[in-house]
Each structure stands twice: as structure tokens, then as C-alpha cells.
UniProtKB/TrEMBL annotation:
GO molecular function: NAD+ poly-ADP-ribosyltransferase activity; NAD+-protein-arginine ADP-ribosyltransferase activity; nucleotidyltransferase activity
Gene: NRT1
Name of the molecule in the record: NAD(P)(+)--arginine ADP-ribosyltransferase
Family to which this protein belongs: Belongs to the Arg-specific ADP-ribosyltransferase family.
This protein's UniProt keywords: Glycosyltransferase, NAD, NADP, Nucleotidyltransferase, Transferase
Enzymatic reactions: L-arginyl-[protein] + NAD(+) = N(omega)-(ADP-D-ribosyl)-L-arginyl-[protein] + nicotinamide + H(+)
EC numbers: 2.4.2.31
Cited InterPro entries: ADP-ribosyltransferase_ARG, ART
Pfam families: ART
Main EC class the enzyme belongs to: transferase
Originating species: Poeciliopsis prolifica (blackstripe livebearer)
PROSITE patterns, sorted: TR_MART
Keyword Repressor in record: no
Gene3D superfamilies referenced in this protein's UniProt entry, alphabetically: Toxin ADP-ribosyltransferase, Chain A, domain 1
Amino acid sequence: MALRSLKRKTPECVTTYRRTNCKFETSINREIRFGGFTSSSVGSYASPHFGDQSCFEITTCFGAGISEFSQFESEREVLIPPYEVFKVTDIQKRSGENSLPCQVVYKLKSTKETRSTLNCA
């Protein structure tokens, strides 16, 4: 309920960015979800101290802006719910001739659908 209230202040869909030190195994056209509340930033990738193994360019339609509550207000933080489903649209790997922000960059686009096995009623 609280996330829905915050969502009213966020445009319908927004592109956000996330970086981490975790490795992920997925493929293009696969549907995934983060499975937990996930922090991301509008405009650009957050500080490299958050990681350089995996970066995500995420188009979220259920994420809510939480900058006013964030420890890192300048990062324009968006909280993505665990139930939002994304399609992997592209995967880029760092090589000698490109300057990606992480070893692997995943592009994710919301399917505008949700999936959860929890009954929170």
C-alpha cells in the first residue's frame, strides 16, 4: 500500500540504473524479476562503490520515487517492487574496445505484469 502511494508521484514508466558486485546468469528474451525490493537511480549509474560486476538499465513501470527518504538524495532513487516482471532485451559484456560501466550490462524492460507466489492478504 505504501509503495502505491509513492508511485503516484512517479511517471508511468521510467528508466533507472543499478550496479552491483553480484554475477547474474540470464539470457536475452528471458523474463526475470529481482525477487526483493531493489534500489535504482534515475539519470545515470550510481557511484562505482556499489559495484562494477553487473549493471542494469531498467525500464520500470511499478517503481516509486523515494529520493525524499533516501540516504543518497542526489541519486534520485527509485524503489522497484519484488513482484515486477522484466524482459531482458540486451546484454553487453565489457571488452578491450568498449567502456561499459560494469563487466556486464543488462537492459531490462518491464512487461507491465506482476508475479508473486506470496499471499499477503
